[in-house]
Amino acid sequence: ETDPSKITLGTADKPGTRVRVLGRVHRFRAQKDVIFITLKDGYGQMQVVFGGELIKTYAALTLTLETSLEIRGQLRELPPNAKAPLNRELHADFFTVIGAAVGGDKEAITNKVQAGGDPQTLLDQRHLVLRGDVLSSVMKVRAAVTRAFRQAYFETRCLEVTPPSMVQTQVEGGATLFAFPYYDQQGYLTQSSQLYLETCLASLGDVFCISPSFRAERSLTRRHLAEYMHIEAELDFITFDDLLVHIENVICRVIDLTFADPVTAGYIKELNPDFKPPSRPFKRMRYSDAIDWLNENKIEFDDEDLPEDHPERKRPHRFGDDIAEAAERRMTDILNVPIFLTHFPVEIKAFYMPKDPQDPRATESVDFLMPGVGEIVGGSMRISDYDELMAAYKRVGIDPTPYYWYSDQRRYGTSPHGGYGLGLERFLAWMCGRFTVRDCVLYPRFTNRCTP
Ligand code: 4AD
Ligand code: MG
Hints:
It is built from 13 helices and 21 strands. The protein folds into two domains: 5-104, CATH 2.40.50.140; 133-440, Bira Bifunctional Protein, Domain 2 (BirA Bifunctional Protein, domain 2). The protein has helices at residues 58-61, 106-113, 119-124, 126-129, 133-155, 194-204, 240-260, 262-271, 287-296, 325-335, 386-396, 404-407, 424-431, and strands spanning 5-7, 18-30, 34-40, 45-51, 68-77, 88-99, 159-160, 166-167, 178-182, 185-189, 207-214, 227-236, 283-286, 301-302, 314-315, 339-342, 355-356, 359-363, 365-370, 374-381, 417-423. It is of the alpha+beta class. The protein has an eight-stranded mixed sheet, sandwiched between helices. Strands 2-3-4-6-5 form a five-stranded mixed β-barrel. Strands 8-10-9 form a three-stranded antiparallel sheet, with no helix packed on it. The longest helix has 23 residues, at 133-155. Helix 5 (133-155) crosses helix 7 (240-260) and helix 5 packs across helix 8 (262-271). The two termini are 46 Å apart. Helices cover 29% and strands 27% of the residues. The protein binds 4-amino-1,4-dioxobutan-2-aminium adenosine-5'-monophosphate and magnesium ion (MG). Magnesium ion (MG) is lined by residues 367, 375, 378. Magnesium ion binds at residues 367, 375, 378. Keywords: Ligase. It comes from Neophaeococcomyces mojaviensis. This is Asparagine--tRNA ligase. Its EC number is 6.1.1.22.
């Protein structure tokens, strides 16, 4: 007899076909004369039936979850009223154990894989938790979304580049820099590739990159990672309004492309049955109006620099306050639509942001907020005038010397330009309805966790 052909799971071959499959035991149910196994590989799942002599073998009697098997048999249509992936089951006539999984802790493995239970244990056992349905689906959506971003940028003629991760300049403030010894000097892990992207405009036109950014965040929140995937783009010869339109177009195109693939759309539906694509145009709101809105809705500013019992600790928001994560999320959740929050005050934003010509207290900056998550994009126009940039370094106390290559963009043919960065894990948390960004990355890195 010729060897039946090997198929991956999740393919609905014709009933009657003889096949060979390789995979791991995801679930099993032993009855008197039959064992039902849900076998899984990276592509899908299949119901396998062991009957007759097969269930009397030592290997079948000692079968454990996650054991890897090679199975040969015949595909059959499911009996009426039965349920299994793709309406097929594989009637096995032969199997071999490729790698047994340690037995005796069926409960433990099931819990790990199904992601219930103690958060610390789940993080320590991440390599096993990743085998569960939820995380593996999120990772598949992540791959599809990443591909969709590349496609969306390709369609808008943005060129992909790969800036360095080891740098000697900060972008988003010294407080969250990871420093490391770099030969005889000090290096930092990049917080954002923005400054490097800006240097590409003159030769490459609009550019984007998809690369990790690093932030030594001190606080444990559900949306901060120490290492996250940063999708950044920089656009030449634009206005602030062009920037907002571009962000809206890219986000909507990425959602359309992601849902155009029925398999990915299926994962998202399972993970987040309530997902609705945002309607356009996105709501726009100036920072100063957001301050008024927060005060009208009695959402207070919590000044964490003051002691707990200080009378000024909780007070109405004032122009110049950094809108905290909690307040921002409450606003987004109440309004329940995506929001472009624009024109933040100079003092709370990065040094490179230009002033709003209409209001010198404000910058041409934007945060894009999503219900459930809050900020997923941060962007702005960039100061394009050399002297203005020098004044900005001075204002925040940055020594301009190591930034000569960045400043030079303003000396050799400057241009009005701007860009933004989007946190992939936050985008996924929103799309897949996850409570925390930690569910949206293989091995989350955050305060004090760098393992496994
Ligand atoms: O708002 P941020 O800090 O902006 C920048 O880094 C700009 N230089 C980007 C640019 O204009 N090219 O970060 C951008 C986005 C945030 O909106 C958020 O989605 C994500 O990056 N982000 C984080 N995601 C996970 N964990 C963290 N610690 C993050 N910090 C920022
Ligand atoms: Mg930001």
